[in-house]
Amino acid sequence: MSHPIQQLEQIMSQLRDPQTGCPWDKKQSFDSIIPHTIEETFEVVDAICNRDWNNLKEELGDLLFQVVFYSQLAKEKQLFDFAEVVESVNEKLTRRHPHVFAEVEVAEEDLNQNWEQEKAKEKQQAGKTESSILDSIPHSLPALSKANKIQKKCAKVGFDWAELPPVVEKVQEEIDEVMQEVESGSPEKVEEELGDLLFATVNLVRHLGKDPEVALSKANQKFSRRFQALEHIVSGRGKELAQLTLEQLDDVWHQVKQQEDVKSMKHKD
Predict the structure, then answer these.
(1) What is the tens place of the pLDDT at every residue in 14-47?
(2) Which residues are CB-contacts of 187 (< 8 A; sequence separation ≥ 6)?
(3) What is the pLDDT of residues 164-198, one digit of tens each?
(4) 53-80 exposure pattern, b = at least 16 Cβ within 10 A, e = fewer
(5) Which of 113, 114, 144, 161 is deepest in the core (most CB within 10 A)?
């Protein structure tokens, strides 16, 4: 009996078979699968945020299938296969963790520096040259994640505040500048200052040790959950949202929040 991974590779091969394969799978290319990969990645994140472990198992399988799909396309073009993908990551992880696999002593505070040195060696050996420390950041990253990555790269060379107060002051400064441009009536400048405000906020999130993409994702989920509860309450009263004033909706919103607080306290007890 073959290993589950081998079975998955065989299934993928059959799906791409020119004669007997699935019409949809046969039409796909590296480029056409990208949106599906992004979607599957976010579904993994959702499952984790919702603590839905059964669904996480399924979503991780879907994400793994994306890797196998790309590997099958590469195999057909005689570029590489799935086994080589696994071998590559095995070798890289082993080499980047000499303190685990090579019995080399590395102080905990030096781990990140050692990791970056190994990455630099890899790029040099591959003939990759960078004119900027920002060159390696993927252009297709979501804006919040990209801002976070840019800031982390700059922080590694010392271009960063060492304490929290100036980070907070910068956010407040950017809010003031947004409002100044709102009063001046320049849409272009408002957008520019809003961008600066978002960038400064990402910096605050980073300094507090959190990921902005994850933090915003959780905020989206919380707001959606509360708004759906609000809809349920209003519907239960035989009303439609448009029939209520903002003040009435706000009262229901506070009711939803209070109900959540009570449930949270009961859960803690």
Answers:
(1) 999 999 999 999 999 999 999 899 899 989 988 9
(2) none
(3) 999 999 999 999 999 999 998 788 999 999 999 99
(4) eeebeebeeeeebbebbbbbbbbeeeee
(5) 144
